[in-house]
Amino acid sequence: MTLLGNLNFALQSLARPVPVPLPAVPRCVEACVQATAGLADGGEPIDRERLAALVARFRHACRQGTLDGLSAREWRDVVWGIWDGSEPLADIAVFFGALVERLRAGSRSLCRKLVLSFLIAFDAAKKSVREIGGVLHNAVMAHEWEWAARQQRFRLFEVDQAPVALAAFILESTTPIEALLREAGISGSRRFGGMEAAAFKHALRRLRVRLEAGSANAMPLLNRVLDWAVIEGQLAFPNLRREIAETLLLPWQVSTPAEALQERILAFLLRHLKDPRIEPLKWQGVGDEAMRVIRRWLTRAALEQFLQIVDKVAEPDHWRYRRAFWMAYYEKKAIDEAWVVFAPAAEQIAGGELRELAGYGRLHKPRLRDHCVLMMRMTGDVVVAEISHVGKCRMWYAGNREAPALYRKAYQISDIERSPDFELAHQGSAQLSWQRKIAGELERQTGIRMSDWKFRPK
Length: 458
Prior knowledge:
7-stranded mixed sheet, 9 strands, 20 helices, 9% strand, elongated, alpha+beta
């Protein structure tokens, strides 16, 4: 099966409903248990308006030297907001000192709330996070409770070690990720907060190292990380789009992954970051090197997509030589981008095979209802359009404003025939006549030389 066929199958499998057995514990009961556990674990942050007012009150008390006049409940509640603002409370020395004193006095409820706030706001780059992490390391060990056990097991309050330990705990297990996180104290409002995000970023680093070592045996780790990356069909960490894309793509700048691995990666990226040719904003911030990899993969998919359909609508001899010719240029990395355009009958023949990718345009008012067009951007910004059946090959060189734009959803036939710099009918295929002429023209425009034997059909 081709890359395109396997990719479509993978995408369809993701969308296909699969019967799921009823859980042993009814979901409503499980939800109640989780909610109760969350309350027992310290509850959830107070509402934003009340928290903002409370933080302002503490700021004023810091300036006036009246922190001792604030109640124990106010201290417990304010810890949810000590990281906020241009001058966080946690960075104010008088507040920090008073907080440490209260923790040393043995306030277990304050310690619990601060632990949960710490897990949400975790950012290893913040000085206050590091300092409060050190305080919590000692504070939690002063009590016989679950957080002391979690500190010993996951080193949660050792800022440089916690994400590493938590990532290892998740990646080296087959237990459902949510259950493992709950075991580590990451549930409720702590889900997808700073600590979990830091652990996930470490998981991405582990995955990248694994992928850079090659495809062999990489699939289990890839699947585990991608499972962690998604919640209810959406990215769990949308702010890490760039990191996710670059982790999956940068290892393949020179080499090509095993087919199954490439299909898994491409299906994930198209589903969750969308097609960068059609929705480039979803890929904003992703580095050029990673973008070149995804475009190369999509170019191959477009070529396979085109050839798969053209085989069904055109005479075999029309494309036997053209297939060999253009695939030779692809293998030489001379085709930077590719886009396919189908007339109505060709689109109908293709059927559902194309719809999952959504990566093609429609040809309106074609000369033949089953016409197909392959558009390519070559090295040197040369645009090429190949029309199926007995259509000509046309080229537009860099700077020609009449060159057809790739990635449009709709075209007229005139859009892909207007004012080319070069055009040629495909005559003398068996003698490699047109191939040598086009290869010579491409060499003049791009500097890429192609030997005859490379584009001769095998």
